[in-house]
Every structure is written in C-alpha cells, then in structure tokens.
C-alpha cells in the first residue's frame, strides 16, 4: 500500500528505581502486536538524557515524516494508562541519567509555556474505556517536568501538535506487559481514527469555503 500511515512510538531506557522500564517493555509488546496492515510502525528506545532527546527527536521527525509520534513513559505514581494532553516548556531542574539538566531549565527559549496535542485525549480516553480492552485509561495535564514532559513538549513543538504522550504504571502495578501492549494498541488506533476524522473535517470546511466563494461570485455575475 502506497499510502501507509507512518507512526513512530518510543519508550524510555531504565532510570532511577525503574531498572526495567515498563514503557519500553510495553512499546516492544505493541511492536509485536502491530497497528494493522495500513500502518507502518517504527519503535525506538529513548535515553533518559536531555541532550540525547534534543538531538534524537528532530532526526526522528525528519527521517520518518510520521503522521503521529507517540511517546510512552513510566510513572511510579500511575495506576492507569494515562494520556497526557500537553507538554510544558519550563521547570526542568531534575538531573538526568548523566547528572545533567538544561541551564535554562526549559526546552526551547522561543516556545510557548505549554503546547497542547491536536488530539482530544478526553475523547480517546472515553473510547478506550468503553471498549473491552480491560485496562483503565485516564487523562492528565501534567507530564511531570522530567524527561517525559521534556520529550513530549519537544515533539509537540517539532510536529506542530501531532504528538501524544502516554504514561504507563510500573509492570505488575497492576498490569502485565501484555495488558500494556494491548492498551497502547487500542489507544494509538483511536488516535489515528481521530486524526483521520480531523483531516476529513478540515477538508470539508475548506471545500465549503471554496463553494461559498464560488456561489458568491456567481451571484454577482
């Protein structure tokens, strides 16, 4: 199929007490399940380092030119699969795996304080919770001001909002890697449906506008 959708999904390497990072385990499980024939899925593991993220993300967006990039991270506080609505630019004081944090404590000097995803996470959350995937999903507006939030903001900035971030709980608290992989698959498929819907609506609005102008000209002739 020539018009395959390209989706990039990332997880993080181990850090701190997360000696096995549930996010990367879940992403590998998603890769095994796939997103269906019409989607070309590329996965990668992201270092828990600000400077590595800064160099990796632009190349991911440029090389793959994806319709959507979904970053997955682990949160010790999460008990559900959590969809993050926005990324934040400032407040990065916590040291990464290399004991580094940005001197400016922000992602990009020129960006807004907060960028929202073009995706309506509440709508996606409802769809997945109404399905029989068997994993609880919730929505958050604070991705934590560490590498998760930093990565999310950077991707939203680079991809003009066509990015998403999903926090997963640590393995076994309460979900298995298979549960998390299945939940990610359901979440990303809903995200793609919503993007498709948004595109159709935009085209429809554009066409209506063109017809409207055409009719006006016609009326005056």
Automatic annotation (TrEMBL):
* Gene Ontology terms, MF aspect: pyroglutamyl-peptidase activity
Give the subcellular location. Cytoplasm
> Basic residues composition bias: which ranges?
211-221
Record key words, sorted: Cytoplasm, Hydrolase, Protease, Thiol protease
Report if keyword Transmembrane is assigned.
Answer: no
Which residues are the active-site ones?
148
Q: What is its EC number?
A: 3.4.19.3
Q: Where is this region: Disordered?
A: 201-221
The organism sits in which domain of life?
A: Eukaryota
Looking at the keywords, is Hydrolase present?
yes
Q: What class does this enzyme belong to in the EC scheme?
A: hydrolase
The entry sums up its family as follows: Belongs to the peptidase C15 family.
**Quaternary state and interactors:** Monomer.
Protein's name in the database: Pyroglutamyl-peptidase I
């Amino acid at each position: 199929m020539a018009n395959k959708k390209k989706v990039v999904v990332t997880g993080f390497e181990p850090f701190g007490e997360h000696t096995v990072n549930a996010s990367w385990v879940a992403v590998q499980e998603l890769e095994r399940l796939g997103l269906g024939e019409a989607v070309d899925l590329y996965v990668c593991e992201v270092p828990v380092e600000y400077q590595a993220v800064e160099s990796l993300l632009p190349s991911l967006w440029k090389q793959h030119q994806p319709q959507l990039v979904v970053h997955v991270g682990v949160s010790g506080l999460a008990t559900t699969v959590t969809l993050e609505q926005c990324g934040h630019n400032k407040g990065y004081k916590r040291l990464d795996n290399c004991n580094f944090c940005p001197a400016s404590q922000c992602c990009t000097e020129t960006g807004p304080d907060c960028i929202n995803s073009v995706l309506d996470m509440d709508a996606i959350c409802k769809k997945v919770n109404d399905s029989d995937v068997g994993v609880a999903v919730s929505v958050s507006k604070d991705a934590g001001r560490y590498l998760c939030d930093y990565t999310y903001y950077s991707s939203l900035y680079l991809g003009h909002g066509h990015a998403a971030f999903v926090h997963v709980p640590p393995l076994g608290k309460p979900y298995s890697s298979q549960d998390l992989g299945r939940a990610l698959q359901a979440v990303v498929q809903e995200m793609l449906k919503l993007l498709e819907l948004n595109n159709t609506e935009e085209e429809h609005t554009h066409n209506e506008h063109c017809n409207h102008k055409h009719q006006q000209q016609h009326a005056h002739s």
